[in-house]
Batch of 3 targets.
Target 1
Amino acid sequence: MISDEETAGPLNYEIVSPAPKIQLLRYFDKPFDFSISAARTCYSPRVINTEEVTADQKQRIGGGCFEGGHHTVFQHATFSFGLENVSRHFVWSFLHSHPFYNSEQSSQRYVRLNEIKATIPQIEGKENQNLYKKAVTRAWETYNQLTDLLLEDVVKIHEEIFNKKVADEKERKKLSKKAIEIARYVTPIAAHTSMVHTISGLTLYRLHKVINTMPTQWEQRIVIGEMVNAVKKADPDFFMFVQDPVPLEETPEYKFFQEQTQKTQPNSENFISEFDSQLGNYRSKLVSYLEEGPALMADAVRATMGLTKNQMSDNEAIDSVLNPSKNVYLTEALNVSTLSPLMRAMNHPYFVFKKKLSHTCDSQNQRHRMTSASRPVMVFVDTKKPDYITPYQITRNSEAQKVYDEFMKENWEYKNGLLENGVPIEHAQYVLPNALTLRLVESSNYLNLYHKWRLRSCLDAQREIWELTIEEMEQVGKIFPQLLKYSGPDCMVRFKAEVRPFCTQGNLWCGQPVWAWKKLETEKRAN
């Protein structure tokens, strides 16, 4: 999504760190009454309206539903918040760490970071505060430097793909977004972001309950606390039965952290060595899968249609779902797979991957909420040595590579310096870059992987997540070729169904006729 405020301007090296700004933009009128009316409707031959809810019913039914675990009634009340001046680290670590939300977030791929806007934790001591600010400022300086260094590469690749010269400044500015999406790897995870964030009342209850979960608990208390206060102001009854958050000291992650630090100083080098050796040459490695997955999918198709194996073979059953010339839903703009009786058969094949990717890439990756992952609590995986991902485009530019590597070395020195000065690790890590390496375990059924792969195998996807997608598709395709026979980006699927236009991205077309490729290969991608 392209912002209205995407044009480049002069970079301001003055750090701006306003407090989080939380607005309750939209909500249901009388949300608690609405929840109780929904609960009453369960035991009524008609729909109960909010006007019919009494004070006694709010106490009796509301308390009974909450204490009894009948929490779906609190999902009907929905709240849309405007969040500004919150860190990307908090968003990744907490706000987007679960599947039950909807966000439209300011994109670092399309919005140039002209201001140094970043979260500054409550760090004691002037020396430490200055060290933190210096680390953040250096990141922005390097971001600007890399943007300039990479722009000519971006322009050259664009000219080669589209076979025409980039003549005017307006077009160069548009192409600069390709440069900033690479340069953003050096910006800190403390960088501010803004978004519209919509959740149900039940999700807000849950966020409030685990507000002290590590490692961004101090920022969570501010942001979630303000969200809760805004809802209480709109409807004082809505938190009538909600108990206090679990104290930090009682959370399982904190207890584990305390036990480990009493035994030994945190050192994740052994974990990293073991994890990376298991990956081998992969960045996303298939480590487990359901061997009978395709057979189960075929069985599910036959169960849906009331057919025997003699009437429909496994390959015929799978083809009836995945062949875009037979399944019209595959060429629709809307993803209706969970609503199609036939396509629900894709739920049964299952896959598990171990993955190594950057913080910024996983911020995209985790938006695929139905492909669930066990992500690291960052305080457990801190490294003294730089541990980061380098974008492909930087490896192609020796000057940019030198600037990038020197910055990473310097950035870790800043972080280590903060730790040596006694700054809590959860605060010091905010200066780490978007390029920070994360290692995680991710699993999903084929229905949700298919949707994710289709979106992220498009050449408009950023290269890092695109390469991970290609690795995953290749590995699954070797084991179960029948599942990957028609897979690929949207244009490939539409081409196989002979539905035009093959590419639906309009003027965002990548410039390459990917639909005609026999195979998706990293060597064929120019950018």
Target 2
Amino acid sequence: MKRIALVGNGVTGKRITKRLDLIAPDCDVVAVDPRGTLAEAADCNVAVVANGGPQIGPAAKLLAHGVSVVCTSDDLGDVRALSELHEPAVQHGASVVVGAGMSPGLTGLLARYLVEQLHHCDEIHLAVHGTAGPACARQHHKALAGRAVGVHNGLQIERPAGSGRELCWFPEPVGAYDCYRGELASPMLLHELFPNVHRISARVSANRRDRFTARLPMLSPPHREGGVGAVRVEVRGANSSGERLTLVAGVAELVGTCAAATAAAFTGAIVRGDLDPGVTVAGDERLNTIGLLREVERLGVRLQEFTGIPHAVNSTFASTQTMMNGPRHG
């Protein structure tokens, strides 16, 4: 019987628990307190780290026991530290998935899926809307007050978070929201995965109050869970004949559900032995991206791809289609 440790029991953690039996039937789920020694996870096959706050501490402790780790952190500094666990992971023969939430995580898989449809890609742009539980809401607040990482002309740059307003259209029922640069980890990871892409950016939705109070303590306690969230991934490039193309994919779903499905999909990949020892990032060309996206859909998240071409569906018109089940872009 497979033993899977779950570190953290918030909104995302609870939804991961519900999906673990789908990816590893009859598995034994061990609840672990991130503030402890994590010794109870020493004999587990894999651990999913879903606690709020830094995850580098629990991940390092688990690696010391030789346990593979799936991390859902989206904090820039934390993700940077987790990315440096490659050598310890290889030494212990364990796999570490960095960024296995909604973003980074699902956004990386969508970016790889879209980029593979192009002959040449020179731009990747992400936008994120919504939060899961209180810890996620606090991270959103922090992201608007920091330094936003991006790529311009192939070089990594930093810009003030909360700047660069752009109206981004998310899949329905979310629709359009003003989005701003944020201190997000995805551009850093995507730059490593796609070093030849000239421009990479990531924005987060925010209203005027969010921006004006970003550098102050949160004025009111965060909600237990946000509403329907969304991600949008846009890539620009050319096909083999040189024609310029813009491809867009996204999701409209509760943030906790997206993160849980993505984390569970990567957990299943480790249980099956699909990942090599060392650090793996969502969007890595070595991954079975299509297989992981299908698994995310099976776990309850509907993926959508914008085609730009109206299609008659039961006497109505739609410009989006379900990615994995419908026809491909074009």
Target 3
Amino acid sequence: MSLSAMSQAFANYLENPEVEKYIAEISAEHKLGQAELKGLFKKISPQQSVLEKIARPAEKRLEWKDYRPIFLKQDRIEQGVEFMRQNAALLEKAEKQYGVPAEIITAIIGVETKYGRITGDHPVFSSVATLAFDYPPRSTFFRGELTEFLLFAREERFDPLTVKGSYAGAMGMAQFISSSYRRYAVDFDGDGKRDLFNSRADAIGSVANYFKAHKWIKGEAVTERVKISGDALQPLIRDDLKPSVGQQALTAKGVKLNGKSAGDVVVLSLQGSDGEEVWVGHHNFYVITRYNHSALYAMAVYQLSEAIKAAADA
């Protein structure tokens, strides 16, 4: 996807009539100063690179056999073990308070930013503005995120032009988008700030809080592989990630589940390096997909968490 001819004609976003309308609306609704907003939009312009990246996310263009090796590398596993060792007390505190295992919290941060090493170099304001005004498939969502970002900047008293993150506006070690930052980030180190950019404590606590808010069930299974062909389970495979298959339906097909979980499940057919892999995702697997709406993402988080835990316990 490329910028429209109209967008290319604007030297900056302030020249776009849609932006003028947006400024008037959020200024009235949220008491944000129009002059200040106009000054900000005058300094940014559409970002073609952002549109190119959102059109080709890895989760949509890769099979599991190609996606898995990106995250299940030895260095990421070893760095995860080190992250757990260095932050053992914080992870234990988060697990006790929110019920989310230390290895799951660690794996999320490992997949998102390689434990804080890669947090993104895209200017968040111009990136989200590009998606809000030049990406029609999700413009409504990103206009909401743009407003959340501006409110977040006002609340935390920072210059919107200085913050960097992912091409989609995710920020900090945990890669929270603005609405998630405002809703789920916590001050886990008690310094009076919710800082996902510099505080490992806040990142750890915020990931755990996010999972608890999305109804993570302590002690229950995440996912398990089953030894049966996808053809046999084809009627049970859905596009929707939300668990909707009763376990009795799997029992009727001869599938015995070992994971502790009483609710409905989702059946997944993934293309692994040795052919088809059939997995059953429980409720907690669905919770991971609330962080990123992708079965590949959730599977990478789960398998990385298991690899980190096994290496740490070895």
